[in-house]
Amino acid sequence: RQFASFLMERLNISKEQRSEDDDYIVVFSRASNRLILNEAELLLSLAQEFKMRTVTVSLDEQPFDSIVRVISGASMLVSMHGAQLITSLFLPRGAAVIELFPYAVNPEQYTPYKTLASLPGMDLQYVAWRNIIEENSVAYPDRPWDQGGIAHLEKEEQERIITSKDVPRHLCCRNPEWLYRIYQDTIVNIPSFLEVLREGLKVKPNLKKSKPASTVHPGRVR
């Protein structure tokens, strides 16, 4: 939190000014890969479920400082798994982080943002949703290898990856099966998404009742 404040100060970003009853949800929109194919439906369902307005931000279309400003006042941040979720460190206390995972990608194996949200002093709620319906995913086997393509692999290996239901544990970050799956586009199943949120959010994201900061002294890094 000290680092986030320092960064906002250096980038001359003022915190988003908000009225008492202006709670809103931010959805990260992507332009070229890992798309949420029913993004409009997702935005509508979030607005109806939480009685908050929804806004989208995009690293492809907006400067970083404006995205940080918007996130710094949000009650909830929703995004596909990806580096853009590091911006969750700018969320106010009491907010929620909702991380979406494509088909065959197990949230238990990719937890940097879950860890960030749960650090003492962050006071963020975290929920992971995973697509378990294969028909709701679109993969791109013919793309370049670093965007999830697998056409360069042996035929048997391609078939094994395509029929696999779960990416096995692997080293970061060039594993072709991991890249194939993480670069899928996803149709978010709205009923299962809302069910996961209802179960996972202990309280409705509320910035006005957020707890004061606690002090954390990091352990030695091995």
TrEMBL record:
Belongs to the glycosyltransferase 61 family. GO terms for cellular component: endoplasmic reticulum; membrane. One of its GO terms (biological process) is protein O-linked glycosylation via mannose. It is found in: Membrane. It is a single-pass membrane protein. Residues 7-98 form the Glycosyltransferase 61 catalytic domain. PANTHER family: GLYCOSYLTRANSFERASE, PROTEIN O-LINKED-MANNOSE BETA-1,4-N-ACETYLGLUCOSAMINYLTRANSFERASE 2. Keywords: Glycoprotein, Glycosyltransferase, Membrane, Transferase, Transmembrane, Transmembrane helix. Its main location: membrane. The keyword Nucleotide-binding does not apply. It holds the Pfam family Glyco_transf_61. One of its GO terms (molecular function) is protein O-acetylglucosaminyltransferase activity. This is Glycosyltransferase. InterPro entries: Glyco_transf_61_cat (IPR049625), Glycosyltransferase_61 (IPR007657).
